Amino acid sequence: MSLAKAKIWTLEKEKAGLQGKLDAQAEISSAVQEIIPKLDDIKNSKDQNLIAEIPRIIKEVTSPDIRSSVEVACREIMAEVKKTRDETRTFAHVAFQSRNLPPSQVPPSLRSSPLGEPEGILLIKPKKETLKDFIINKKIFTDILEKYDPSIRLRGIGKLYGGGVRMVAASHGDIMIVKGLIEEYGDKETMDGFDFVIPNRRSPQLIIYNVDGEVDQEQLKAGILAKNITLAVSANKPYFKVEFSIPARNSLKKHWVLSIDPKKFIEIKNRKGLYFQFSPLRTSEFISIRFCKRCFAYGHTTKNCDPKNEQKCDRCGPTMAYNSLRGIQINVNHCVAAHSGALLVARDLGLDFIAIQDPYLMKGEPLKANFGCKVFMSEGKRAITYVLNKSLNCYFKFNTMNSVTVELHFNNIIFNVFNCYFPPHDDMEQTISELQDYNFCNSFNLVVGDFNCKSRSWGYDSDNFRGRKLSEFIAASNLHICNISEYGPTFQSTIHVGFPDLTLLSIPIINYMKNWGVLYMESHSDHKYIYFNLELEDIPEADFFLKSKYGINKFSRYVKKNAGYFKNKLAKSSNIIYLNNLFLELTDFIKKAAFKTLKNKPKKFAKKYSFWNEDLRLARNKVSMLFKIYNRHKLSTSSDDVVQSSGLAYRKARAEYKRLLLSTKRKAWEIFCTNYNERFNFLFQLAFNKGGSQDSIRVNPNDNPSNTIRDKITYIMDNFFPGRTSEDDFNYIPVIGSIDLILIEDLELVFKGLERGKAPGLDRIDYHMWGAVFNLDKIFMLELFNTCFKLNYFPRCLRNARIFFLLKDGKDPGLCNSYRPVCLLPTLGVWGGDLNKYHVDRLHTIQRIFLLKFARGYRTTSTNVLNVLTGIPPLHITAKAEFLKFQIWVRRSGDYNDIINNVQLDHNILIKNIPSDMKLVSLSEHLSDATYEVYTDGSKINEETGLAVCILNDNDNIQNFLFKLKPYNSVFQAELAAIQFAANWAVSENSKINLYTDSLSSILALQSASSRENFEKKVETDLFKAKNLVGLSWVKAHVGIQGNELADQQAKLATTTGEELSIPAPRSYLNRTLKQLILHEWCGYCNKYTSASGIRVRGF
């Protein structure tokens, strides 16, 4: 029975095969029948070349491999047809023809379409979340095209990120027809959910090299048109447009970029140059790629970088960010099996990079990976780094004979990977010196390699000279040893075991080394694989700060452009949800504005170890001087004795300098290690050979060695911030009464009191930025804060804090109570305060050093006594006086009017808005045709101030003007007021006068262009109006000049009988008042000092 079933199955299979052959033969015969009539038509045509090829085509069609022959024949026929036609109609022509439109209604751009026209592209992007299914969207649009115009031809339909559709047609006209069909026949409600975009094409560009730097844009355009007549049409309309210039290496030259008409681009490009002013200039195609050096993305520049924009993949759209860096390192001992095996292991483990030392070289070149990667090697080819992750942005930084450095850009940071191999018999000092020029303290670095050094810090039982030198280099370079000796040796041969392979990491990021270990797998080398994994997703971005002190005006202008949106949103914030969203958007916008407009400056890590001092500098300078003298004597005709003596002095000084350098360096290192005596500090352990991998928080619950850093942080957080328990009752409803809203004066007082030098908050916004926002729109900020009071709610985004646990001095790091939690809040949620006792004591400590130098007293003398003996007030009192001066003179605060007895003060004005001829008043010293001589003077007697203006005609006193000023006015102001009155009198009388004054300071002030006080500028303005009527000159006082003596007597008389004249108080009055305040505060502070030395010195 089973045999019969097998036969039946075999017969059915044969039947199916025969039926398939019959069907294929039927299809081929039908295709041949369709081709034969077309071949007859071709025979009747006049194309002789095509007729001659027909027998060969028929022969190939009838060949055994019919299918391939037909395909070849069709391609040849199409090629011949295309040769015989000058142009081909695009789909746009066919579409308009099928609609039976008259020629007049066909757009001119579609009446003829030359070959080579660029493709047309239509991008359809969904606006709503419900329309992000690509399959459904594609079906919607293709159904519309198939239903309403089946003759539509598209070259392709692709997918856009977010469910969008990309359609490609033969030309721009084709895609315009497609867009029109979809918009005309598509459902209006559905079509409103999409954006239809036809992207513009950029015109091709050329760059012209080395144009004279003095040539501007218009001159270049005119010169090119004059010497290159083919670059313009008959109406002298150019085929090009001058875009912009680029600085050349030669500062006297420039490169210019031109946009060229696509029809003329190939022709101009092939010429390789253009003529300008009788000179040929070289040209080439200019391809402008915009690249951002901040986020390392393409499409924009650093100036226009938005930190919130993430770099997306063009096809799938996920963020191109890498939160971890995985790699291995190994010394392959010049073995081909070990080298190739390391590459295979790295590929199988999916690592990002591999660092190989002492590689295998074939004909002087290292092995290449057959799966593709970037290779970086040292100058001596002793260290090679393979970057396997093709998505990483990696760049060659520098290399030396024994090391190579690669710069990796990812996750908003720049990370440097050093791969080193220090041969065991090379000079260690010379090898380390290759890396000493690099500043390890200002960057994030990973240093791997085989260093061939012995030290207890990384697992050996003893130290050698090379190990001590490397330990010094590690400590000075702010690096941390990641090796864990308990994991076993990294080198193991038949006779030796050791730990020469090290992994070093910058101290600021040591907690981000998540895995480090020795892989016990076959390596075909004496060295083992060392695996490490860095997770960098939580590295704080504040490795730089924004320079808000400069460029704040640009920041304010950017904020002002977008202020209207936040005002409207504030008006609609009727509950805490809207208020939370408003604060979140506002802080994000301020951060964006700061990133766009302000420059950033990298934070520098403090260098821990330094040995240079003044003695070394003097010794070095002495050696340099003696070396120059020695060279001078050798080159001149000096005697041999002089040359030998100068050479002997130079060599002796050089030897002393080297000895001093070595001893100072050794002594400084010993002092550094001795002073760094914290019990669990890493550098102390490293210096005294107690190195090891330690966590920054050493609290270990239950002494469990398997606890992770997260477990330790959770434990210490629960200790400081305990959560809710079953016994807690949090059902507290506060009784809220009427709340008094804050006034604009209250808000001004708060913002004026903010310290501008404070560090930025968690959001990197500092007080400079918020102060600028407040000054831009005070009413908006007032309503913003009052809204919080009305809703009795503090925004959630301002309550987020980053907590730092600082170890208290002398405390046990194993206990939770030994740490002090510090919270870093957003800037808007922090308020400042006044000087407290701690600040006062710190200022005393700073000032005491200088007071001891000035007074030359004993070190036991108290600071308060030193203040009295030297006559220098305490710093905190002086600081308070400076604060009051700023508030009164600059800020014009009314809170301190009682200090100046409500006196009206003069003020400074902006002189940049004053015309230049009015800034600097230059009067003639003497007018030959003057009618009157005028003498002026000012005087102050018994705290009373007066001025006098005496007018003489041929030495006859015809009139005197006396004025009395306020007690707070100065003699300098009286002199200026007298000159101003005399100039105004000359203008009112329309008479020319020669003005004489014995105040040289007044004349110099009027001739200065930098004076800013308002009263002085008013006097200068009046003199400028009368400069053709007044001659101003200085006369010496009290030498018997009749007019000057008369003016002096009248000025003294004016202090009692003069007419009242009101002038604002000068800045000197404020200084005198604050000086008296300092003395008063100092006396009160000194009286509180009740020690024995304070009582003895109080008599001073």
TrEMBL record:
Residues 928-1056 form the RNase H type-1 domain. InterPro entries: Endo/exonu/phosph_ase_sf, Endo/exonuclease/phosphatase, RdDP_mobile_element, RNaseH-like_sf, RNaseH_domain, RNaseH_sf. It comes from the Eukaryota. GO terms for molecular function: nucleic acid binding; RNA-DNA hybrid ribonuclease activity. This is RNase H type-1 domain-containing protein.
